[in-house]
Design a protein that fits this description.
2 domains, 19 strands, Beta-lactamase, 25% helix, alpha+beta, Peptidoglycan synthesis regulatory factor (PBP3), Domain 2, five-stranded antiparallel sheet
Amino acid sequence: MSCLNDLLRPLTAILVAASLAALPLAVLAQQTEQPPPKRQTQQPQQKPPAKPRTTTPPAKPTAPSAAAKTEALPPSQVGIGTLAKQAFMVDPQTSTVLLFKDADKPMHPSSMAKLMTIYIAFEELNAGRLKLDTRFRVSERARNMGGSRMFVELGSEVSVEDLIKGMIVLSGNDACVVIAEGMSGNEDSFAERMTAKARELGMTGTVFKNASGWPADGQWTTARDLAVLSWRTIEDFPKLYRYYAETNWTYNNIKQENRNRLLRTVPGTDGLKTGHTEEGGYGQATSAIRDGRRLILVVNGLTSMAERAQETARLMEWGFRESTNTTVFRAGDTVVEAPVWLGSLDKVPLIVAKPVQITAPTGQTVTPRVVARFDGPIAAPITKGAKLGTAVVTLPDNRTVEYPLEAGADVPRMGVFGRVTTMIRHYLFGWLS
């Protein structure tokens, strides 16, 4: 969420009691009064019983509970234990981290590096500098790439749309080289662009050396960084993100299945990308959405494709089952009413354009605290939708998330007589008269 700190210079605080959907909610409105002109004012073991003399077979031992199995797994710093060496799960709508295991530790990105190659291609498409039918020629370097391939033909020209499907569905290393060379002339230059974009997106632990994630010295990322990239892909390119949900694709008469098994086994899964290297093991960045709530999971360091599929499915189900989101404000709800200076209305509602939610353990009642910050009184005329402040929501773990506040209505300026009267009253009696 964007921040309007440059507009927030609070001098006074007004406590406003509010109740929404039977949820106790304290809203503190902070405004900077600037009416013109200014006025100063953690059983021991038992011996096994003797073997029974009857012919009845002994009872089978009771299987360990799910909780016991979970506790036996290597622990995480946050959330349940997991077989993954690195793991990170976040609810991006509330910025709540549900699972954290060495998520800032450098790891090999493997084919998950393709997420950035695809992000840049999506960015060029959105800007109109590329089109889905733009075609790039296949070089000898691209044709000779090993690992997973799209099987492009040397010298052929392949459309950007086919290259995108080749990278996402087929995890084609050859497709990555084609698009990197087509966009930047050579793969090294494109890798530099990938790293620069990573910095721009806040991926501070990531360095790319090629477009496909092929093992290379000095190429690193983190589970947290890949989660950031996954979320930005979903948020920034909602119309293009659909390619990540394709379960199979045929190119050059060769049909291949998407390696993301969760697309077929875990309800709500709509992306993103698997990866594997000998050094890093098996990894995956996954996203799923249920009833409007999205979770993003990144794991790495697993020992097989089967283990990767089972562990990611288990973790994703745990995330949806053990936590829920509570709506503090719905889109369009008024957070606070701000005073207006020289307007046809004395106050203007400040609303949130997107739902404001918080994440908590399932069954837990939460009471959030919301602070509304704005410069006020707000001078008329005011246009509906104008960004006028920020709602700061304090989460159960004491972190804060900011949401922009917009004007919920148009407020025209007063007529001449009204303005004169208001200003005279202000000069004679002060703003609070």
